[in-house]
Amino acid sequence: MEDNRGYDREEIFSKKVKAGKRTYFFDVKSTRANDYYLTITESKRKANGDSFTYEKHKIFLYKEDFFKFAEALNESVDYVKTELLPDVDFDQYEQEEEESSSELKWE
């Protein structure tokens, strides 16, 4: 795979997360120098007449920022869960995901 500068970028690992009208892709890629980075892509499907187009937004996350990024993400999610929406049962969303995943396995 080549990026817009013509450099080869090899995909090492990929995880897809469907979330309603959005899909998130977490892709670990390598550089020519055998270094690794993560791309996080949000893809939204949009109707365009009789067909669909996809709007994509991408974040590049480098190894030196992994810890800081994960820490800030977890802190932000915890803040929403405990301070802004303390009465919401967030476990229900995990259970819904597990149920839909198990349904997909059997189809």
From TrEMBL:
Give a yes or no for keyword DNA-binding in this entry.
Answer: yes
Q: Name one GO molecular function term.
A: RNA polymerase II transcription regulatory region sequence-specific DNA binding
Which SMART domains does the record associate with it? PUR
The secretion signal range is none
Domain of life, per the record? Answer: Bacteria
Q: Does the keyword Endoplasmic reticulum apply?
A: no
Which Pfam families does the annotation name?
DUF3276
Check the record and name the InterPro entries matching this protein.
Answer: PUR-bd_fam
**What keywords sit in the KW lines?**
DNA-binding
Name the family the entry cites. Answer: Belongs to the PUR DNA-binding protein family.
The name of this protein is DNA-binding protein
Recorded source organism is Algoriphagus machipongonensis
